[in-house]
Design a protein that fits this description.
Structural class: alpha+beta
Strand content: 5-15%
Largest sheet: 4 strands, mixed
Shape: globular
Number of strands: 6
Radius of gyration: 18 Å
Distance between the termini: 53 Å
Number of helices: 6
């Protein structure tokens, strides 16, 4: 049951509930799911001082695509949770290294670099390519993508939607994955919700160095 304050906009609430149904067709809604949808609404109406530059969107697209590949290689919910937590893992803000997986091997750190104009990447200081302490391996994920006209490929927000749809498990487990994912998106910023640019990553254009 939902008890409405008299000032509540019932039409807006209906739109929120419709979006929740997209996430959970059974109609069994959790508090975490409601908070996830409210956060999505906030992102829709939160005005940025300026739209992100294309280069910034390209960087976010590459990270989202790499995360999608990491998540798609396991059906284990606990492992998906670890892989989500490994994105922007250090501190409360952006991490200098994109992905940290201490539970792989002796610890694996991965910095993702994405380009549309050849495999030439800008490194923002030596910290991005220095293996962190207590990690056994460091990799540079070199991602080469191609811009499309929208008839193929995906925008950042479409990748976000695809990742959300891939979450499996119980209602509680799915809600937990959504909560973690959206906390990471909040840290990564508005680029993850860009709808202007579409890209495709041809097969073989991800290289781990």
């Amino acid at each position: 049951e939902i008890h409405l304050d008299p000032s509540c906009d019932a039409e807006l609430l209906t739109m929120v509930l419709d979006r929740m149904k997209d996430h959970e067709p059974s109609g069994q809604y959790s508090t975490d799911l409601l908070m996830t949808v409210i956060q999505q609404v906030q992102h829709m109406f939160k005005k940025s001082k300026r739209p992100p530059r294309k280069e910034e969107v390209i960087g976010a697209w590459g990270e989202l695509k790499f995360l999608q590949l990491c998540l798609s290689s396991t059906d284990n919910v606990s492992e998906k949770r670890r892989r989500l937590n490994g994105w922007e893992a250090e501190g409360d803000g952006r991490d200098i290294i994109d992905f940290r997986y201490p539970h792989f091997e002796e610890g694996v750190a991965i910095e993702a670099k994405t380009s549309t104009s050849g495999r030439v990447h800008h490194i923002n200081g030596t910290d991005q390519v220095t293996v962190p302490e207590e990690y056994g391996q460091g990799w540079l994920a070199s991602i080469l993508i191609r811009e499309t006209d929208g008839s193929s490929g995906h925008s950042c927000v479409q990748l976000v939607d695809e990742i959300e749809k891939s979450f499996n498990g119980s209602e509680e487990e799915t809600s937990d994955l959504l909560r973690i994912f959206h906390s990471k998106l909040d840290m990564r910023g508005i680029c993850c919700y860009d709808e202007r640019f579409y890209f495709i990553m041809p097969e073989g254009d991800l290289r781990l160095i």
